[in-house]
């Protein structure tokens, strides 16, 4: 090759390179805020735009597609692909641009079509805002935080180091309740806590979300929170569990995890059912509560009970009989606080003429409820020893339909099962969240996800209809298939068999906080003065 040809090729290379660089420069344009860009584009083209952001800044805008389906690829300052913007809007519509930089430098925005067979179209590109770190921080917080209260708390924490402590001191309960605009049935509950330094995460238990909810951190603070939509008429217990991680060793080679139940609270929504009988009322004369015991030949032991007689008990008048399990929890210990104040409830019901005079017997658990309440001998003790003993001491109607057997959870199961076996002595069952999943065998059902029917459900399916009336209630937030599901199943079987069943559901869980209110409902339903 002669010298003249080499020189000619050199100048041709320079011309081609400069032309290519010029063309590339035309394709890569720097984006300017609020300036509208209108371009035609073919499927083979890629239009590249650049913008410079500091770490934490954001670019906000939109690309309007016209007769061509476009995507937007975003690359970081190291030319690494970050994300693709592609809305499901076909050949016409808006592709939103909302991007926050996580490092400083020049970013690329590439507009192109994924459909190489598309026809030529056009677009309009406009950047509406480039936000500073401070403005973007506030914008993201408003978008991420579900309530104005949380946002205001976060914003205050930016300038006030005591903001979180002040907030907690003003809210001794670990929740706040706020309205939801346009929603007349639910309100938003925010739960909050400050966990340990070694807490990995926190879970909420209780309420409408049976599987629990995970807390999140309020940015740059020590406060963690989670929100929950809750019906206005709900009432339930809730709790926090801390999942903690402890590390040891020079390089943290050892990790040890533990679960800590950190808090229990009660949530009562504004329209929760009123529990008007659980508190002592002025002018209501109290009945007498008498703890005692009787020896059971069947059980071969001394059984503790407490007997409540109505005010001005008249031995010449026959009374109804109410027997309740878990006597210690249901107010069987005089001058002691109880989970359910049954003596007070009975005094109020009788004073308001909601029920006729009734003698109440509270059967103590004595630490053996798990065994007793699924034991046939215990049922025999109730029907064959306890009821005759009460009749020997007090004037009780002789008819079975004047006797109510009541209990919650396992106690609801026991009441239903004992009545099945002894319907000649017990004509009414009051079941609060009855544990109808129980099989009573070594391979017991899982208490949340039972594989088989409980034995009581099968027993009632096989038996003939008996002279028993039922009141049943259960919480909508109570252990899924095993509790709510099997209570509904048991109800359906009873109704198909022809039993009289008063069945109710409340927006709550497996808790005395609900049962203390519904106990009065069950008593009125079964032996109320309207019956």
Gyration radius, in Å: 36 Å
Q: Sheet with the most strands?
A: 8 strands, mixed
**Helicity, in percent?**
25-40%
What would you call the shape? Answer: elongated
Biggest sheet: strands side by side, in what order? Answer: 18-19-21-20-22-23-24-25
Beta-sheet strand percentage? Answer: 25-35%
Number of helices: 11
User: What would the average pLDDT be, to the nearest integer?
Assistant: 93
Summarize the structure.
The protein has eleven helices and 25 strands. The chain is α+β, with helices and mostly antiparallel strands.
Question: Which structural traits does this protein have?
Answer:
531 residues, alpha+beta, five-stranded mixed sheet, elongated
Account of the 3D structure:
With 531 residues, the chain is α+β, with helices and mostly antiparallel strands. 27% of the residues lie in helices and 34% in strands. The protein has helices spanning 3-27, 133-144, 148-157, 163-170, 342-351, 369-372, 376-393, 410-421, 455-462, 480-497, 512-527, and strands spanning 28-30, 36-41, 46-53, 58-66, 71-75, 81-85, 93-100, 105-112, 121-131, 175-179, 186-193, 199-205, 213-214, 216-217, 224-231, 235-248, 254-268, 288-296, 301-309, 320-324, 358-363, 403-408, 428-432, 469-475, 500-506. The strands form five sheets. Strands 18-19-21-20-22-23-24-25 form an eight-stranded mixed sheet, with helices on both faces. The protein has a five-stranded mixed sheet with strand order 1-3-8-5-6. Helix 5 runs parallel beside helix 11 (512-527) and helix 7 (376-393) crosses helix 8 (410-421).
């Amino acid at each position: 090759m002669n010298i003249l040809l080499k020189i000619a090729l050199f100048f041709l290379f320079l011309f081609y390179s400069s032309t290519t660089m010029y063309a590339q420069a035309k394709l890569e344009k720097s984006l300017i805020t609020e300036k509208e860009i209108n371009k035609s584009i073919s499927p083979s083209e890629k239009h590249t735009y650049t913008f410079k952001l500091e770490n934490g800044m954001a670019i906000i805008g939109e690309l309007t597609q016209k007769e061509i389906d476009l995507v937007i690829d975003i690359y970081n300052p190291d030319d690494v692909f970050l994300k693709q913007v592609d809305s499901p809007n076909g050949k016409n519509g808006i592709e939103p641009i909302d991007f926050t930089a996580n490092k400083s430098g020049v970013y690329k925005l590439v507009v192109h079509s994924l459909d190489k067979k598309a026809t030529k179209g056009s677009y309009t590109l406009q950047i509406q805002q480039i936000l500073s770190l401070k403005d973007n921080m506030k914008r993201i917080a408003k978008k991420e935080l579900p309530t104005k209260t949380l946002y205001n708390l976060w914003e205050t924490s930016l300038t006030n180091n005591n903001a979180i402590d002040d907030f907690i001191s003003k809210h001794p309960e670990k929740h706040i309740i706020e309205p939801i605009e346009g929603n007349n049935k639910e309100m938003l509950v925010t739960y909050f806590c400050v966990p340990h330094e070694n807490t990995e995460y926190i879970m909420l238990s209780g309420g409408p979300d049976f599987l629990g909810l995970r807390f999140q951190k309020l940015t740059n603070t020590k406060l963690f929170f989670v929100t929950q939509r809750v019906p206005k008429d709900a009432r339930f217990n809730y709790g926090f569990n801390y999942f903690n991680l402890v590390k040891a060793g020079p390089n943290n080679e050892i990790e040890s995890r533990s679960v800590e139940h950190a808090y229990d609270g009660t949530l009562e929504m504004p329209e929760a059912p009123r529990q008007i009988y659980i508190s002592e009322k002025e002018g209501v004369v109290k009945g007498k509560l008498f703890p005692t015991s009787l020896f059971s030949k069947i059980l071969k032991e001394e059984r503790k009970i407490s007997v409540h007689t109505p005010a001005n008990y008249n031995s010449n008048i026959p009374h109804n009989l109410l027997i309740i399990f878990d006597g210690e929890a249901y107010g069987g210990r005089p001058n002691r606080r109880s989970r359910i104040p049954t003596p007070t409830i009975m005094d109020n019901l009788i004073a308001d003429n909601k029920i006729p005079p009734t003698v109440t017997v509270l059967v103590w658990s004595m630490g053996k409820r798990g065994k007793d309440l699924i034991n046939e001998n215990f049922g025999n003790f109730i029907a064959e020893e306890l009821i005759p003993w009460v009749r020997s001491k007090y004037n009780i109607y002789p008819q079975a339909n004047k006797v109510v057997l009541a209990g919650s959870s396992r106690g609801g199961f026991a009441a239903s099962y004992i009545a099945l076996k002894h319907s000649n002595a017990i004509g009414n069952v009051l079941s609060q969240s009855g544990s109808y999943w129980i099989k009573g065998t070594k391979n017991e059902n899982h208490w949340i996800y039972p594989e088989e029917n409980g034995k009581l459900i099968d027993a009632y399916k096989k038996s003939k209809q008996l002279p028993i009336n039922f009141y049943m209630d259960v919480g909508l937030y109570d252990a899924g298939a095993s509790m709510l599901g099997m209570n509904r199943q048991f109800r359906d079987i009873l109704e198909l068999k022809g039993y009289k069943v008063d069945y109710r559901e409340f927006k709550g869980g497996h808790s005395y906080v609900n049962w203390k209110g519904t106990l009065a409902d069950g008593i009125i339903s079964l032996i109320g003065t309207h019956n």
